[in-house]
Design goal:
The complex is a heterodimer of chains A (291) and B (412). Chain A has 291 residues and is mostly helical. Chain A is 75% helix and 1% strand. In chain A, strands 1-2 form a two-stranded antiparallel sheet. The chains are: A mainly alpha (291), B alpha/beta (412).
């Protein structure tokens, strides 16, 4: 149905305030980041045009590749876990296993507390004289310097991401499952489908769009949503071993005051996430047979 | 009619004359670190030496009104950089000493022509106040708030283990004493490398022992690379305490403030700290602690008796100030020994003052901290990677080479 000119005018009027805010606080700052990325400057200082100099320096910097590799580790290890594990939990909750009401709240609980609280609790748990080492000492294992070991620190952050994030992802899957029409299940039961058949032939195929959304959100989160946790738990260390691109962006801007260089990191992050988003969307369409 | 016009013109001129002779000029101070209020909240603001100096100045010079803008160092940096470009910044600035001040030297007044030789002696001016840390170059600031690092010890632990801390003259002595303490089940040294601060203190001292204050200042001008054998020696020398297990086992994930807290709790024999920590030790430990100079890298090191000591703050006048003479007079008051004494009388108790005086008495032969001599970016990298270097994950040669690369890049 085609809308009338009057409806179109109303539509524009109603969306205009939101569009203006989006323009002012998202589009223009993003454009500024692109502009800043070709200059070398500290806040308030003179801006020197360096062309692609910041990008050349970035790609030649060891720290950039270390941070990029750390992001890749989170992408490859944390994101699949953070997507599949909540899916399993959501299906179990949907099947109303014993105590499902308690588990539904308990799983989501870490997600409602602030990053500061959760990061501090998690960090303290793995202190040298923290509860985890206390428990290990009961079985004769000497205390471990968890946060001082680069490999262990990365693993701990992966565990942390899942601990804090899986409740939210599980809830998204659960809401998608709850929206499926009862008639689909009733028809399947009448046709004699068992639990496994219902799961693999109905639920999982119908969950595919939500699966794509959760996957995309989690991917974005490991590239652009871990700053607070890393800042509070490891400060990117030991050395640069848990530094991600967004943390590197922060240190370049606010510790060494190189705003042009940090803008270049932001531009690279922008294109990475854009590329991943497009790739994921195409893969989803391929799997749904739309292409 | 002519008479009336002439009378009006004369009247206007008289009024203008009156107004200009009575005009009050403003001197603006941007303060990023001097105490304008008591951090312990025991003394009223108007009683603080900072405010009293200003009040006295205004009383003696009624033609000036002093306006103070207090801000933290980060906000100061951003605002001052912008103001310098426009030439519309303050008349006086109070900011961190070292490379922070020197980073703004092109906007600071050369004080040489405003100060006599007697003044220079009074204000304890060192190379740190000169461009490029070179006494031959322009003098752009006056120092205050001197800090000295030392080896603090727990008196009770020393007594229980028959250790005379004054006998610790070299790193070998410290290692020997540490070995004795380990044998008796005591953690010798509280240390934390998560923030790289302990390494800055110790490496500054051990490097200074080998190259002296001028050699250390050469890091700033770039005439000496950071990746030099003496720097590697200094780092390797301190690394021994970790390799031999003479520190708390969680040194790699602890910060300097964690170590300081452990020391106050009596969990170890020694701690490397600075004068700024004395007041806290006095409150928590009373007479259960003491301090000796940091041990030298070896007894035959050319500058073995030098200690790492430097002003914490600088006061300076901008070269675009419209009232340079008056502004210089004001900063002379801030940098005077009387000002320091008055402030210490408020902020420190008698015992703390004694300890700080003792530590500052070592600074007749002193040099600055390494992070004051290298760029901010290189310092950040030092803090970040020092723990890994001490652990042995990266070699000292690799560590110092990376610092040199960053230093060169940021100084380019």
């Amino acid at each position: 149905m085609k809308s009338s000119p009057r409806e179109r005018v109303f539509g524009i009027i109603f969306t205009l305030p939101a569009f203006i805010l989006f323009l002012l606080f998202t589009i223009i700052p993003v454009l500024y980041i692109f502009y800043y990325s070709v200059f070398d400057f500290a806040p308030g200082g003179p801006m020197t045009f360096v062309g692609l100099g910041n990008f050349t320096e970035l790609f030649n910097s060891k720290e950039f590749w270390v941070a990029f590799l750390n992001n890749l580790k989170f992408l490859v290890v944390a994101v699949p876990l953070w997507t599949l594990f909540p899916l399993v939990i959501a299906i179990l909750l949907f099947e109303k296993v014993k105590g499902w009401k308690f588990f539904k709240s308990a799983f989501y609980f870490p997600g409602i507390l602030s990053v500061t609280i959760m990061s501090t609790i998690f960090r303290t748990m793995f202190f040298y004289d923290g509860p985890v080492n206390e428990v290990l000492s009961l079985v004769g294992i000497p205390p471990i310097e968890f946060w001082a070991n680069s490999n262990i620190a990365i693993v701990l952050i992966v565990i942390y991401i899942n601990w804090v994030g899986f409740g939210g992802a599980a809830l998204m899957f659960l809401s998608a499952l709850a929206n499926f029409s009862d008639s689909v299940y009733e028809a399947a039961i009448m046709d004699g489908a068992n639990w496994g058949q219902r799961l693999f032939k109905i639920e999982l195929p119908l969950l595919r769009p939500m699966f794509s959304v959760v996957l995309l959100l989690n991917t974005i989160a490991v590239f652009a949503g871990l700053f607070g946790s890393i800042f509070l738990m490891t400060s990117g260390g030991p050395g640069y071993s848990t530094t991600t691109l967004e943390y590197l962006l922060y240190t370049s801007a606010f510790e060494t005051h190189r705003f042009g260089y940090s803008s270049a990191i932001a531009v690279v992050l922008f294109f990475m996430l854009l590329g991943l988003g497009i790739l994921q969307s195409r893969l989803t369409k391929v799997s749904e047979g739309e292409l | 009619m002519k008479k009336i016009i002439l009378s009006i013109v004369a009247f206007v001129f008289i009024l203008a004359g009156c107004s200009s002779s009575g005009e009050v000029e403003t001197i603006t101070i941007w303060n990023a670190g001097l105490n304008s209020s008591d951090p312990n909240a025991t003394v009223a603001d108007e009683e603080m030496p900072f405010n009293k100096v200003i009040a006295d100045f205004e009383k003696e010079n009624p033609q000036y009104d002093v306006v103070v803008v207090n801000q933290d160092m980060e906000a100061f940096n951003q605002a001052f950089a912008a103001a310098n470009q426009a030439g519309e910044g303050p008349d006086i600035v109070a900011m961190w000493a070292g490379s922070t001040t020197l980073g703004y030297s092109e906007y600071l007044l050369d004080l040489n022509s405003y100060l006599s030789d007697t003044d220079l002696k009074t204000y304890d001016v060192s190379s740190m106040s000169h461009i490029n840390f070179d006494p031959e170059e322009a003098l752009v600031s006056l120092p205050l708030g001197f800090s000295t690092t030392g080896l603090f010890y727990n008196q009770k632990i020393m007594d229980e283990n028959n250790i005379d801390p004054t006998s610790i003259q070299t790193m070998d002595d410290l290692l020997e004493v540490s070995n004795t303490l380990v044998d008796k089940g005591v953690t010798p040294i509280c240390s934390g490398e998560a923030d790289g601060v302990t390494s800055i203190f110790t490496t500054s001292e051990l490097y200074l022992d080998q190259v002296g204050p001028e050699g250390l200042a050469e890091l700033y001008s770039g005439s000496t690379s950071i990746n030099n054998p003496e720097m590697v020696n200094a780092l390797e020398s301190w690394k021994q305490v970790y390799d031999l297990g003479y520190t708390n086992p969680d040194w790699l994930s602890s910060t300097q403030s964690d170590s300081s807290l452990d020391f106050k709790n009596g969990e170890c024999g020694f701690l490397v700290e600075g004068t700024w920590a004395v007041s806290g030790f006095e409150t928590e430990m009373e007479d259960e602690y003491g301090v000796v100079p940091m041990p030298a890298i070896s007894d035959d090191a050319p500058y073995a008796d030098y200690v790492a000591s430097q002003p914490g703050m600088n006061v300076a006048v901008t070269n675009y100030s419209t009232n340079p003479e008056a502004s210089v007079e004001l900063i002379k008051s801030f940098a005077s020994p009387e000002y320091a004494e008055a402030e210490n009388a408020i902020l420190l108790d008698e015992e703390s003052s004694k300890v700080i005086d003792l530590m500052n008495s070592w600074s007749e032969k002193s040099g600055m901290m390494i992070d004051s001599a290298i760029s901010g970016e290189a310092s950040q990298d030092f803090y970040k990677k020092a723990g890994l270097a001490m652990k042995g994950d990266i070699s000292m040669e690799e560590f110092t080479s990376e610092l040199q690369t960053i230093n060169e890049k940021s100084n380019a």
